[in-house]
Amino acid sequence: MLTIYGVYRSRASRNYWLAGELGLPFESVPVIQAYRLDDPQAADAPLNTQSPAFLAVNPTGLIPCIDDDGFVMMESLAINLYLARKHGGPLSGQTITEEADMLQWTMWAATEVEPHAVKIIMLNNSKSAESEEGRLAIRGAARALRTCFRRLDAHLAATGHVVGDRFTVADLNLAEVFRYA
């Protein structure tokens, strides 16, 4: 059985969404990021990314991660590509070139979109946005995001989908990354 470790208000939402699209039964094990807790090592602390019980599953301490019948994997976007390929159907690549396109667009979103979106979020959360340096960094990140949106819009103009003419794991992965933007 598939077990997803993480919480819904995190990047694990990507994996929960795909599991739902695929109709996969799964167990959800909430794991909180340790930095959100005053004392993640306290005896009464909830399961978190520094808990020995979680580190026994995933020694990197990163969420989300999955345990798919003994196969443990981390990184939400990679997990989605794996689950789509494993379970097949219209969400997965039907040819090697579709699989390559799905990987390409997923990596593009992870490397070209998400860092800029996260930068804006982090600056706003740290109040650095109030400084001149922070405002300049936000402007630069927003400009980069606008470029990404234009590129994606141009690509989607043909079929309305990232790969092929149907909703796939690539659409889901990009939607989840762009959600932060």
Protein architecture, described:
Helix content is 54%, strand content 9%. By secondary structure, the chain is α+β, with helices and mostly antiparallel strands. It folds into 2 domains: 2-87, 3-Layer(aba) Sandwich (Glutaredoxin), CATH 3.40.30.10; 96-180, Up-down Bundle (Glutathione S-transferase Yfyf (Class Pi), Chain A, domain 2), CATH 1.20.1050. The chain has a 4-stranded mixed β-sheet with strand order 2-1-3-4, with helices on one face. It is flat and about 55 Å long. It starts with a strand and ends with a helix. The model has no long low-confidence stretch (mean pLDDT 96).
Task: Please indicate the count of domains.
Answer: 2
Sheet/helix structural class: alpha+beta
Radius of gyration: 18 Å
State the fourth-level CATH superfamily of the largest domain.
Answer: Glutaredoxin
Helix content: 40-55%
Number of strands: 4
For the biggest β-sheet, the strand order reads 2-1-3-4
The top-level CATH class of the largest domain is Alpha Beta
CATH topology of the largest domain: Glutaredoxin
Label the overall shape.
flat
Q: What are the secondary-structure elements, in order, as H or E?
A: EHEHEEHHHH
Strand content: 5-15%
Low-confidence stretches: none
Going by CATH, the architecture of the largest domain would be 3-Layer(aba) Sandwich
What's the story with the biggest beta sheet?
4 strands, mixed
The CA-CA distance between the termini, in Å, is 33 Å
Secondary structure tally, helices: 6
- What do the pLDDT scores average to? 96
